[in-house]
Amino acid sequence: MIPSGRCEGSLSRHYGQASGWSLPVRKEGTRVVDLSSRNPDWWRQAVIYQVYPRSFADADGDGLGDLKGITERLSHLGALGVDALWLSPFYPSELADGGYDVADYRDVDPRLGTLDDFDAMTAEAHRLGLKVIVDIVPNHTSHLHPWFREALLSGPGSAARERYVFRPGRGAHGELPPSDWQSVFGGSAWRRVPDGEWYLHLFAPEQPDLNWEHEEVRADFRTTLRFWSDRGVDGFRVDVAHALVKDLAEPLRDVAEFGPTGEEALERVAPGTHPYWDRDEVHEIYRDWRKIFDTYSPPRTAVAEAWVPDARRALYARPDELGQAFNFEYLQTPWDAEALREVITGSLATARAAGASATWVLSNHDVVRHASRLALPPGTDENAWLLSGGRAPGVDVSHGLRRARAATLLMLALPGSSYVYQGEELGLPEAADLPVTVLQDPIWEQTGHTRKGRDGCRVPLPWTADGPSYGFGSGGSWLPQPEWFGSYAVAAQAGAAGSTLELYRTALRLRRKLLDGETLTWGEAPAGVLHFARTEGWRCVTNVSDAPVPLPPGEVLLASVPLPHDGTLPPDTTVWLGA
Predict the structure, then answer these.
(1) What angle do CA 515, 516, 520 make, to 5 degrees?
(2) CA 254 from centre of chain
(3) For a FRET experiment, which of 25, 290, 451, 517 has its CA 20 to 30 Å from that of 235?
(4) φ/ψ bin of 478: left (φ > 0), alpha (ψ from -120 to 50), beta (otherwise)
(5) 416 within 8 A of 358, measured Cβ to Cβ
(6) How many CA atoms lie within 13 A of 61 on its CB side?
């Protein structure tokens, strides 16, 4: 249960019954956090900026972003005011799944640079006061990984195959998959090899799943964690953290009885017992990893990507495991005050129960950018919208950006860590009209051209208002950039009053000054409005309704759009108020 309390001091003077905005009565969270670089708990209320390396900046002009390009543009993150950058995979990969098919966990893809380039990038980030978090992909390797190549050559029953999940097929001649397990990207999760055996791939066929019951697998990842930690990495984002351990007891259990795949299936089985999602045994792995993290000073941080129900997410975020877990419920919540308040309250309670801080995210490399998503009518089939090229239904770009700005200020006011995806500080909408001939995401082919995939949020960033790739690099870009990209460029927005970039810069500077605890106190407000107070009396008010409401008393510190002079807070607007 959330503890109750009564606001004291200056808040009581500003929020009285006469104003229609009654005293806050509910308090969320208790921990006070120092965000200085010396504090091992720096991550608890940090703002982390996700860099998708191949789409951030291209220094060598080959059309693909690289580490030197990131290093050259780190000043942008310094000026933005974030606390850390999270680097999506930069390892050797054939890009069957955007770099999440890793051929070598302890090296850099030659197209992106070298280990020396990585060290130079890390050193420059630390010079600018930025922490560095890297992706680690433990559920599967690339099919080009030396282990998998050895497994294919060694044949059935070999020790090399035990590092992966190989099984004979069903049917009279082994012609059927070993089970009905389904790939997240579509179709069977099993692929047959020439000698007749089948291997498991919960994602693309080029991503064979590792067998985490094998001690050599566990030992190799311990080595990988130490390798990057020794190079100065401050933390890890753990990809598909809930999928490592599978129930491999024979006969393998089919999953058709559970109904849908993914998170929906988890709601139909006893917690921790699904054949391959969110099994209880996975937590032993992360407790082992925590022992490694804690040998460093300060301890290395970690955050789980775990698409699991809210109560299960807390397990990954426990202090003796990873410490944080992504809050996907918040990302998926509709633009509705009641729904947002419910998710915020539940997320803070879940994080507190785990001894962690909450996490908040609006966009990432796997979802439609929120500047477009928030403009879509409720219940819109996003895949159908992408297949229409973003035309059915049509999107009011200015309306989407207005909501995105309001949602951002709401997110940044919440206790916990905010994860910002590259380009959202520019207000970038989804590039929904990419021609199918240029698509790179394996989802497009693996689903038989029925799901367009995630390329629309991965288009390389615009840095300048013109040029062959809007400043991304001298040699074009690996995904085509829309003609309208130039108006969103960093150079077009830097220093421009009212721009989305300047809103982010101002919000992050102000956030650093205002934060000194993890307390949120709800107050009453008109229907369709969220209102809460933070430590020392500053408040956040978001009008999610379709009509103006009276602006409550207090000094306006920042608003997501210019406020009218009639004393109202317009629809789709967030304001931060001082005491």
Answers:
(1) 75
(2) 30
(3) 517
(4) alpha
(5) yes
(6) 4
Handedness of CA 243, 352, 366, 51 (dihedral sign): negative
DSSP 483: G
What's 27's DSSP letter? E
Full DSSP string of 488-534: G-HHHHTT-TT-HHHHHHHHHHHHHHH-----EEE---STTEEEEEE
Compute how many other C-beta atoms are within 10 angstroms of the C-beta atom of residue 43. Answer: 29
Among 538, 543, 550, 531, smallest CA distance to 573 is for 543
DSSP conformational letter for 345: H
Q: In 3D, which of 389, 347, 358, 350 has the Cα closest to residue 372?
A: 389
User: Comparing C-alpha atoms, which of 537, 525, 540 is closest to residue 574?
Assistant: 540
Q: Say how far apart CA 204 and CA 191 lie, in whole Å.
A: 10
* 41 Ramachandran zone, left/alpha/beta (phi>0; psi -120 to 50): alpha
The alpha carbon dihedral of 93, 442, 187, 385 has a sign of positive
Q: Cα(69)–Cα(118) distance, rounded to whole angstroms?
A: 11
Listing from the earlier edge strand, what are the strands of the sheet with 520-522? 26-28, 520-522, 529-534, 539-543, 573-577, 556-559
Question: Which tokens belong to 23?
Answer: 């005293």
Which residues does residue 576 pair with via DSSP β-bridges, in sequence order? 540, 558
The answer to whether 223 and 138 are in contact (CB under 8 A) is no
Nearest partner of 459 among 496, 428, 413, 490, judged by Cα: 428
**Residues paired with residue 530 on neighbouring β-strands, in sequence order:** 542
CA dihedral angle for residue 252, residue 256, residue 261, residue 267, rounded to 10 degrees? -100
d(Cα 202, Cα 181) in Å, to the nearest integer? 8
- The model's pLDDT over 57-113, given as tens digits with 9 standing for 90+, comes to 999 999 999 999 999 999 999 999 999 999 999 999 999 999 999 999 999 999 999
Cα Rg for the chain, rounded, in angstroms? 24
Residue 536 CA to residue 554 CA, distance in Å, equals 13
Q: How far apart are CA 12 and CA 401, in angstroms?
A: 34
468 in Cβ contact with 474 (< 8 Å): yes
Query: What's this model's pTM, rounded to 2 decimal places?
Result: 0.92
Q: Are residues 446 and 204 in contact, defined by beta-carbon separation less than 8 angstroms?
A: yes
How far is it, in rounded angstroms, from Cα 289 to Cα 236?
Answer: 11
Task: Give the whole-angstrom CA distance, residue 425 versus residue 80.
Answer: 9
Confidence band, pLDDT 50/70/90 cuts, at residue 1: very low
With b meaning 16 or more CB within 10 Å and e meaning fewer, what string describes 174-203? eeebbbbbbbbbbebbbbbeeeebbbbbbb
Cβ within 8 Å of residue 268, ≥6 positions away: 258, 259
Spatial separation of the C-alpha atoms in residues 6 and 26, rounded to whole Å:
7
Residue among 205, 181, 183, 210 nearest 192 (CA)? 205
- Check: CB of residue 510 under 8 Å from CB of residue 413: no
Cα 554 to Cα 193: distance, rounded to the nearest angstrom? 68
CB-based burial label for 88 (10 Å; 0-12, 13-18, 19+): buried
